[in-house]
């Protein structure tokens, strides 16, 4: 027998002995495991559930509008005699803004008052003559009618004179003027804009599916670009019908603007709370397992995992609100859930 064959035979014997040893060892381990019949417990992490207040919020786009805004026009034509306001300043309700030359109207008023005084004297005389039956009733009526006509004409001129002083209809900030002293203006000419900005309107639209969840006096929060300030507003008006082209419902809220940070025409991001639930149960979305009959989770009871079917309402980016199946104080398993079965033994670590 050559040396090569002897070495080869020894290698075959050694390999066979190793195989026999491993088979025998595995058999012993299987027999030992068969005696207790248990798998080692699965290590999992869990949290103890607590009830809390939950508010379902949607974010929509809106626009900021002035509470009141008008373009100021004159009701009469004429030459601008005086301008009493400074562009961009705050004006009070009833404050005089502009004076139109009224010299011609004043002359007409003087003439009308003279005619009215004469007509009043004639009417008085006609009454005395009527009492003495010196004139007919028809002549007296004509004289009285002439007096009343002249009286009405005087009142008309007085009304025209009052319109030559243009006053602010409400308090607010006045814009840039488009006229100067000496300009001839007509009712078609826009003098300046007036904006009431102590309070601002926030107009926005929501999808029609949320229409039943909105009520007047609901508080919303809004923000505008280039500032971190969050403004609070309250809904005061809701459109009675859904816009058919966009399937949205328009709403309007009112916000205080004491510091003047809100500017009419700017974009606004509106956060609208749809539903507020007291004592809500929120759980991490990764702890929920979708199944054929709904959704389930695992809770820890002692050293075992228990399968629980749950009902949910809505979800946020990271959490799900549970309406049935769980309660405050339950220990919810959040990791290793895909490898668990009902009544499986666990090694629990509570966060």
Automatic annotation (TrEMBL):
<dbReference type="InterPro" id="IPR058792">
    <property type="entry name" value="Beta-barrel_RND_2"/>
</dbReference>
<keyword id="KW-0813">Transport</keyword>
<dbReference type="Pfam" id="PF25967">
    <property type="entry name" value="RND-MFP_C"/>
</dbReference>
<dbReference type="InterPro" id="IPR058627">
    <property type="entry name" value="MdtA-like_C"/>
</dbReference>
<dbReference type="Pfam" id="PF25917">
    <property type="entry name" value="BSH_RND"/>
</dbReference>
<dbReference type="InterPro" id="IPR006143">
    <property type="entry name" value="RND_pump_MFP"/>
</dbReference>
<dbReference type="GO" id="GO:0015562">
    <property type="term" value="F:efflux transmembrane transporter activity"/>
</dbReference>
<dbReference type="InterPro" id="IPR058625">
    <property type="entry name" value="MdtA-like_BSH"/>
</dbReference>
<feature type="domain" description="CusB-like beta-barrel">
    <location>
        <begin position="203"/>
        <end position="272"/>
    </location>
</feature>
<feature type="domain" description="Multidrug resistance protein MdtA-like C-terminal permuted SH3">
    <location>
        <begin position="279"/>
        <end position="337"/>
    </location>
</feature>
<comment type="similarity">
    <text>Belongs to the membrane fusion protein (MFP) (TC 8.A.1) family.</text>
</comment>
<protein>
    <submittedName>
        <fullName>Membrane fusion protein (Multidrug efflux system)</fullName>
    </submittedName>
</protein>
<dbReference type="Pfam" id="PF25954">
    <property type="entry name" value="Beta-barrel_RND_2"/>
</dbReference>
<feature type="domain" description="Multidrug resistance protein MdtA-like barrel-sandwich hybrid">
    <location>
        <begin position="68"/>
        <end position="190"/>
    </location>
</feature>
<dbReference type="GO" id="GO:1990281">
    <property type="term" value="C:efflux pump complex"/>
</dbReference>
